[in-house]
Amino acid sequence: MTENAAYPHLLSPHKIGSHTIKNRVWMSAHATLLVRDHLFTDEHVSYYVERAKGGVGIITMEAMAVHETTQPYKGKAFAFDPRMVPQYQKIADAVHPYGAKILAQPWHRGRQTNSVTSGVPVWAPSAIPCSVYREMPHVMSAEDINEIIEGYRLSARHAREGGLDGIEVHGMSHGYLLNQFLSPATNHRTDNYGGSLENRLRIVLEILDATREEAGPDLIVGVRMNSDDGHDGGLGPDEWADIARAFEATGKIDYIGTSHGTYLNRMLIYPTAPVDHGYQMSATRRLKDAVSLPVVGAGRIVTPDEAEKHLAAGDCDFVALARALIADPEWVAKAERGEAKRVRPCVGANWCLSSIAAQAPIACIHNPAAGAETTFGVGTLKKAAKPKKVAVVGAGPAGLQAALTASQRGHQVSLYDARDKVGGQAAWWSTVPSRQELSGIIKWLSAELAQTDTNIVLNHKVEGAFLRDEGFESVVVATGSQGVTHGWSPLRPERWNGAALPGADLPHVFSYTAYLEARPKLGKRVAVVDSIGGRQGAVVAELLATSGHEVSFITQLGQPSPDLASSRDWGKSHGMLRRLGISFHVDREVTEITNDQVVTRDAYTDEAEVFDDIGGVVLVMGSVAEDQLFHEILPARGDGLEIQLIGDALAPRRVSDAIREGEEAARAI
Fold this sequence. Notes:
By secondary structure, the chain is of the alpha/beta class. The protein is built from 22 helices and 27 strands.
């Protein structure tokens, strides 16, 4: 059986209006922050071209504003700006040679933003603030509504003039402006745009009229809408099915794209792991059964096998992928080549969202080329002019990536690790229930390494003399980091290298890395002391609770693990930890640890609080680079030895940094 035979639905063509799409893979819209001055850039073009080259059948570009009142950040394209026409032409000319169709996605956030960037009030159908941004919106007048309709009209005109294949009218999913008009939970109007379903539909139907009029009969016109809002008072699958019927009855659209959720429950939009793959399909199927138009389904579809299953079952006609294609732009091509098992998996870490939250371009936790296609993309890796004998020391994510890329360039690579397995901290994390999909990073790198002639040596602590004796010409040091054990938090910088926190050296006190690696036996009641605010504390607390411990999570911060806000899953994670029985204690600094107590003070009032009967303490207070080997061999640079320090051994940070630096180091050899 050929792989194409294994995916008869996924890889077969399908009609959308008068257009034939070469397969059933639809790249759904997502922000990139590659936009400058509200226009696309060459990096933006390269981002879409990479996915078109990789075999995607149809691409919906990222959501583009139809009005100045929807600017969540400066890196947002203006679909209503006539300067977009040549931008569209550039993108269409670059994508079409690969057989992909490409669509614009005009949209408005409504209340789900703030006015910080735009400098003008947020607009919404009613005076109901967003649960995330909490800014009271301006209630739209009839004149304002006409401005929005005109913005959608101009957006469609520019898409046609720019040579795009169509327009996907957005705003009816994820709680955006048109969703706000449609839902009785957010539309409390008493005029012609509120009350009955007919009235709540009015603005959307007027937008569809304007869009089709500008698009003409040949361009694709579709809608992006929810199949379930997923909250009390919102629209459920049956109501959305009725709305879909109303849209189809206009005769103005060619397909319906579906999704879930609003900003009340963003984990229905882009959930982190763990979540059932294909979790939206039940509601999508109900909508599909209500219409005859092609329906695009989404919802954490990661592998070609998963996509084929849903297509074969009739849940949808196309599968929409975003994060899966961020992780691997060759997702389709690998399925076509019979290499589906070599797809770099999306592991549900949401680093793509975290990077956007940091106002940085789109990125992936383990695809260093995402957002950097011109530098690291497919076809950019060149064979080394002179192959070298290379040692990579440390087989965590940084070392694995460095070894893989160096081997692919033709170098003779040996990869060493002092432990008995590869993966480093990422491997430890992936044993925790909520983080199990992270193992996909290590499994993928290991499987790809197996395709090379890399020599992997475990249980070997490398010393400088060994590297010199073996005659290596280039050394990449990726020896990672270890959690600090002195017990002082960032509140006490003057004590960082001084006397340890009283009791930090007791035998039942461990750094988080030591605990994750060794899993020592602790007493029933355990304290996790976190001063970092990242995912480390949440991971340790979950592991302890699922191992039967009673966990007190103590942090000097005002909220446990606040950094999870950038990946949008702080609520999901906090809820999971609370259901496990973990108690949170915020604004508290630990001042002493005894044999059975943890003594704390209120960070603002100095009020003391003592935690009794504590049988174990895990400190999440940062980590220090394991860079001793680097400094030992550094003098050898004078003798011509290439030496690079990467990942946590350079500075303890994130998996994404480690993998990117592994790629950069290998390309520099």
